Amino acid sequence: MEKFYLTTPIYYPSGKFHIGTAYTEVLADCINRYKRLQGYDTFFLTGTDEHGQKIESKAKEAGLNPKEYVDKQAKQAKELWEKMNINYTKYIRTTDEYHIKACQKIFEKFLAQGDIYKGEYEGWYCEPCESYFTETQLVDGKCPDCGREVKKMKEEAYFFNMKKYVDKLLKYYEDHPDFIKPAYRKTEMINNFIKPGLEDLCVTRTSFDWGIKVLSDEKHVIYVWLDALMNYLTALGYTSDDDSLFKKYWEPDVQFVGKDIARFHLIYWPIFLMALDLPLPKTIVVHNWITMKDGKMSKSKGNVIYPDDLIEKYGLDATKYFLLREVPTSSDGLFTPENFVARYNFDLCNDLSNLLNRTVSMVNKYFGGIVPEYNGIKNEVDESYEEDAKNVINEFENNMKEYEIANALQSIWTFVARTNKYIDETSPWVLAKEVEGESDKEKEEKLEKLKSTMYHLIAGLREIAILIRPVMNDTSDNILRQIGIDSKTITFDSLKEFKEIKNVKVIEKGEPIFMRLNSDEEVEYIKNLMKK
Ligand code: MSP
User: Fold this and answer.
1) What is the CA radius of gyration of the chain?
2) How far is CA 22 from CA 39, 85, 319, 342, in A?
C-alpha cells in the first residue's frame, strides 16, 4: 500500500477554538478520508503547540502553572476533534518527553554544524512585560501591550544562519512547482520576505522559562517556532531509538497551513529541513481564512462562532459542508448566518435531500422498492446523463489533486442539480401512467425505459454518496442505506461500477436527510450564538 503523510499545524491551546481555527483540521480530515478511500496507508498528524511566552502568561491569568494549563487545554482540543469526528492518526503535544528530547538533539546538531551561532539580540525591551519588541511593533514608541516606556536592550542569543540557505531555497522553489499551492504564495514569499533580504532568525530566548531548554546552555529556551516546526519530524520518532514510522512515512505528502503562518512554513521550515539534509514535503497548501462581515473573528467584536454550537443545532455534516464549500484555497470565505442557512436549505435540503426522497419514493411506487438492473435502454437524455456522471468524477479528482475542496464540492453539486434535471427530462410519472393496465409491445418498451430511468437515478445517487464521503461521512452512509447499498464495501474504485448495481432494494419509506429550516428564525438563532 502506498503511504500518505499529511499534517495540520499544531494549535496554540490558548482558548476555545472557533470555526476559523477548526477549518485547517476539517480540510486535512477530508483529504485523509479521501486518500483512505483511494486505498492509501495514511498517517494524519495533528496536535498542540504548548510552549512560549503567550502560553506562560495565559496560564498565569488562569491561576495555573503552565503544564496544568496546557493539560487542560489539550484535553479540550481533543474533545472538540472527537466531536468533529476528526480521524487523526497521532496527536502530538510539544510538552511530550520524546519531542523535547528530539528537539534538543536537533538544536545541538545545528550548533555543531555551525548553522546556529551565538550572537546578540537587540530590541526594545519592556521590563514589566518581560518582552522584546521590534521598532515597528511599538505603538507611539511605547510597549504595544501595556503602553509603558521601553528600553533598547541587548542580550545573548542564538541565531540560525538563514542567509546560508536562501539561494538553495529559491532554486528549490523554482525546480518544484508543486511545492507551494496556490502558486501565488510563492511569489508573495519571494517579494515580501526574501528579496528585501532574509535576516538570520533568533532561535532562543532567555526572558522566560516555559520552553525547551538548550542542552548545552540551559539558561536559553528554544524559540517556540523552531520547537513547534520540529513536531512534524519528532512525531514519527525522528532521532529516537525507534524511527520506523519516520522511515516509513517521511516526507510529508501534504501539509496544510493557514495564510497567517505561511512564512514560517514556506521559508524557515524548508531551510531547517535542508540543514538536516532531509527531503522536503511534496506540497504545502496555504489556505485562506474564514472571515466575518466586519473582518476577523474576535471575541471583542462579538462575532465569534464556535463549531460545537453549529454542530449541536445543524449537525456535523452541514457544518463541515459549509466550511469547506465556502472557503476556496485561494481567497477568503465569508461566514454569515444568512449564508449558512441558505446553503443548508438550498444545497442540502432542496437539492440533495429531495433528490433522494423523490427517487426512493418512485422506486417504491413503480417497482415495489426493487431497483431494476442496468438494461442498456437509453436515448440521448440518458446518454448525456451517463456522460455527465463520468465527467463529474474527473472534475472532482482534478480538484482534489489540487486540494481545491470548495471546487470539488461545487462540481458534485452541479451533478446533483443535473440529476434533479434528469428527473424532469425523463418525467418518470408520465411513463408510469402509460404502462399501466394490459401489456402490449409498446408498453413493454416503456416499462424498460422506466426501469432504465430508475436505475440511472440510483446509480447517480450512489455516485454522489461516494463523492461526498470524505466531507460528509454520515450523510453518505445514510444515502447508501436508503438506496440499499452496504457502505462498508465502498471505496473510490466503486465509482467505476456505475452500470453494475445488482440485487438492491431501497428502504420502504424514505427519510429526509436534511429538513428545511425556517430562514428568519435560524438566522436569528445564529446571530445570538455569535453574541454568546
Ligand atoms: N501554533 C501555530 C502553528 C504551529 S505549526 C508548527 C498556530 N496555531 S493556531 O492555533 O494559531 O492556528 C492553527 C490554524 O488555525 C492555522 O492554520 C491558522 O491559520 C488557522 N486559523 C485560525 N483562524 C482562522 C480563520 N479565521 N480561518 C481559517 N483558518 C484560521 O498558528
Assistant:
1) 28
2) 26, 12, 11, 21
Alpha carbons 138 and 148: distance in angstroms, whole number = 10
Q: Could you write out the three-class secondary structure of 124-179? A: EEECCCCEEECHHHCECCECCCCCCCCEEEEEEEEEECCHHHHHHHHHHHHHCCCC
Q: Which amino acid is at 449?
A: K
Domains assigned to the chain: 341-496 (1.10.730.10)
**Ligand 1 atom 25, closest CA:** 20
217-221: long-range contacts, CB 8 A cutoff, minimum separation 24: 217/158, 220/157, 220/158, 221/51
Torsion of CA 11, 13, 19, 21, to 10 degrees: -20
Residue 295's Cβ-count burial label (10 Å; 0-12, 13-18, 19+) is: exposed
User: Dihedrals φ, ψ of 303, to 5°?
Assistant: -130, 30
Reported as a pLDDT band with limits 50, 70 and 90, residue 174 is very high
pLDDT over 80 (residue 129): no
Q: Are 363 and 371 in contact (CB under 8 A)?
A: yes
Helices (H) and strands (E) in the chain, counts: 21, 14
Instruction: Determine if ligand 1 sits within 6 Å of the CB of residue 290.
Output: yes
Measured in whole angstroms, the distance separating CA 135 from the mean position of its chain's CA atoms is: 36
Continuous segment of H or E residues that includes residue 93 = strand 90-93
| CB-ligand 1 contact for 268 (6 Å cutoff) | no
- The minimum-distance atom of ligand 1 relative to the CA of 13 is 10
C-alpha 22/C-alpha 98 separation (Å) is: 26
CA angle 12, 15, 16 (to 5 degrees): 110
**Residue 155 — left, alpha, or beta (φ > 0 → left; ψ -120 to 50 → alpha)?**
beta
What integer is the mean pLDDT of 17-25?
95
Quote the CA–CA distance of 12 and 95 in Å, as a whole number.
12
Span 281-304, average pLDDT: 91
Distance, CA of 429 to CA of 446 (rounded, Å): 12
30 lines ligand 1 (CB under 6 A): no
Q: Which of 7, 16, 24 to mutate to test the pocket of ligand 1 (most atoms within 8 A of CB)?
A: 24
pLDDT digits (tens, 9 = 90+) for 208-256: 899 999 999 999 999 999 999 999 999 999 999 999 999 999 999 999 9
Three cell numbers written together for 347 = 444545497
- Element (DSSP H or E) covering residue 287: strand 284-287
This model's pTM is above 0.90: yes
